[in-house]
Amino acid sequence: MPGFVRELGGAFRSYVTIAWWGLAAPRLTEREPLVVLQGVVCDERGVLLAVRDDLRGWELPGGTLEAGERHREALRRELGEETGLDVEVLEHVGDYRRTGFRPHTAKIYRCRPVGGRLRPGAETRALRWFDPAALPDTLFPWYRGPLTDALGGCDNPVERDEHQGLRDVLAGLRIDLRMRWSDDRAGLG
């Protein structure tokens, strides 16, 4: 039980940081809308998902642009940092414009590994290949649509408008607490 109490303390600190990042920062300190680049990395092992250190649940690996970077270049860098893999960025799956909690645009790309060695990065707790037909129930719900689009083989990039409201925030918190309680094993069946 003491380990779980320590985890709850860590969760509280993460939740305060995420609340600032999701509610205040976009409205008070940021001049440009946030753009997040994420990769649906697939090969014969399945689709690669990651668990980050802050809000714990399975998600697509990725990150943000650094000054002067192009999207594909930034995505390759981010995936290398988070997964240890070198990837080829195949095609743009779509743009998911999200309002509500943490307004941003997620640009999703289909990718395939071409080298490197799978290993978690500094911000990543865990990495795992999943059968696309058996994704974990601790996958954050806002990743299901992009995964469906990427794995369904859309011919042209999609554009989707999504609102992340209280239901999504609470779903994320429930997943995070399940992952912390189970030492990141929840939802693995």
Summed up, what is this model?
The chain is an alpha+beta fold and 189 residues long. It has 4 helices and 8 strands; from the N terminus they run αββββαβββαβα.
Number of domains: 1
Bulk shape:
globular
Summed up, the helix count is 4
Mean pLDDT equals: 89
> CATH superfamily, called what?
Nucleoside Triphosphate Pyrophosphohydrolase
| Broad structural category | alpha+beta
Q: Within the CATH hierarchy, at the fold level, what is the topology?
A: Nucleoside Triphosphate Pyrophosphohydrolase
Multimerization state: single chain
Corresponding CATH architecture: Alpha-Beta Complex
Order of helices and strands: HEEEEHEEEHEH
Could you give the distance between the termini? 23 Å
What portion of residues belong to β-strands? 25-35%
Helix content: 25-40%
- What is the radius of gyration? 16 Å
The largest sheet, given as strand count, sense and whether it forms a barrel, is:
8 strands, mixed
Tell me the number of strands. Answer: 8
Ranges where pLDDT stays below 50 over 5 or more residues in a row are none
Task: Using the coordinates above, name the CATH class.
Answer: Alpha Beta
Task: Explain this structure.
The chain has 189 residues and is an alpha+beta fold. It has a single domain, classed as Nucleoside Triphosphate Pyrophosphohydrolase. The chain has 4 helices and 8 strands, in the order αββββαβββαβα. It has helices at 2-28, 71-83, 144-151, 166-181, and strands at residues 34-43, 46-52, 58-59, 62-64, 85-100, 104-116, 124-130, 158-164. Strands 1, 2, 3, 4, 5, 6, 7 and 8 form an 8-stranded mixed beta sheet that branches. Strand 2 (46-52) and strand 3 (58-59) form a beta hairpin.
